[in-house]
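Re: the request from the purification team.
They wanted to know what the chain is likely to look like in 3D before they choose a buffer screen. I agreed to run a prediction and write the result into the notebook, where they can find it.
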Amino acid sequence: MQVNIQELVKETGSAEKLYPGKRVIKKYVQPGEYKSHCVVFDWRSDLLRVELKAGLSGKSLDLKDLKNYPVSYQAPTFIELVAGNDDTTKDTEEEEEEGTTGKSGGGGKKPTVKKLEESELSLSAFDKVTTGDVSKTAEIKKFVVMGKELAKEAYAKAFDNFKTQLHQAKVMAMDIMKDVGDVIKKATPGGGLEAKGDESVKYKYDAEKTHALFGGMSVS
């Protein structure tokens, strides 16, 4: 499933542009202790990670602090996207290849710019930013909600729910699962615990039962 990178950032209400090497943090300040959270957009090389985190710093909290937050913020919730090669990127690569077919022997060649997947956070990434040659779309590689990895058939609905959450007053991990159904691929325990084997589970979203546990439903 492909998504538009810049449009996803705009859903938060931010006018910032996202590009390789940049990190954008959308803060959701909530009344009361251990309620505030944030969504971090972290673009490293060709991999863009969008993650819901407890606290406002955008950093992973120590377990002794993380345990004070609601359960829905303790287990990992994130999307991993692989930036695609759209037409703009392809045209740039073709021009670079043409530049290398000039004069032989020293001065006629232009330096070859490494592709994003070959050089993490390289100078070439920032060169692409200045010329506008940044991938506009990305493919969802992995989608995890509260430690539960979703199957591909769940991506569209879960992603739509996530975008709705982004421009609200808070992001509720449970709401991302609304109307998603039984499409959990793998479950990972929260609180920093590691998964043991293929812990496949069946999951059913029930707003009434989960209301008190996860702090209530967000306002549509």
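For the purification team: The beta strands are 2-4, 23-28, 37-44, 47-54, 77-83, 137-145, 148-150, 184-187.
Please add any questions underneath this entry.
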